Amino acid sequence: MDLFGKVPLVEIPILITVDQKTWLETLVKKGKIAIPPGGTLPEGSVVSIFMRTLLWNSEEQRQSLAMVPMEIQKKVCEARGLVATQIQVSVDQKAWLDKAAASSKVPLPPGDSPISLFTRILLEDAMEQQKALERADPWADDEEE
To answer: 32-47 b/e with 16+ CB inside 10 Å = b?
Structure first.
């Protein structure tokens, strides 16, 4: 169940790059991913909340792997050193994710999945957006520890 006990969640395994995992961990440590009011949560729960938001946004924009150029899908498939992680998503998001990821037309390496591919593409886009925001903000305090 989600934080409020209203939405059933399912845990799904995904493969992401080491850079993406490090980026997510850094966002949590620096407080860039907000923890809901009322306390602390384990890092994995905070990352899952972020991923549910990322997926919700993608669903609202009606994104799918079919929209991603084949060259980008192939490049993302060629990533080495993938790490396994688990995220919790709503049952509805899991159904939507299955459908959005099913439009993949590239052959996947053994052990990889269309859901992982789609998730890596979404994370890569989020990382690029954050970098663009940081470049645009000369007062960003990202170097503070």
So the answer is: ebeeeeeeeeeeebbb
